[in-house]
Amino acid sequence: MLTHCKVGAIVFFVSDLARSVAFYRDTLGLPIDAMDGHDGPFAMGEVGELALVFIPRPARAGESPVVVFSLEGGIDDHAEALAAKGVEIVVPVSESPDGGLSLDFLDPDGNVLSLHQNEGAPRRH
């Protein structure tokens, strides 16, 4: 089902956004920038083709980091296919901070995984 996608991002839920930005940018030297999204502030940077996203929000064990698989479209089709296979959907298809769409679900051990497609991509194939 996900054979034509790639890991596009890793999302970290962090307790202190400024502290995390300082660590990843100033200590590790990664190009991380803070910004405002439709749900509030967050930070983002790229390491090669992989985006690192930092969202200020407490997280329970298993909720962070979240591996995000990038789709070129068809997120609604993927959501239906996952649900049909008994996968637990924890956040249905909804708008992501960058204006695209995302869907969060659990693997068998309760780890959160996510699908994301960019703004304007078709919701169905």
TrEMBL record:
SUPFAM superfamilies: Glyoxalase/Bleomycin resistance protein/Dihydroxybiphenyl dioxygenase. Pfam families: Glyoxalase (PF00903). Residues 6-118 form the VOC domain. PROSITE patterns: VOC (PS51819). It comes from the Bacteria. InterPro entries: Glyas_Bleomycin-R_OHBP_Dase, Glyas_Fos-R_dOase_dom, VOC_core. This is Glyoxalase. It comes from Pseudoxanthomonas japonensis.
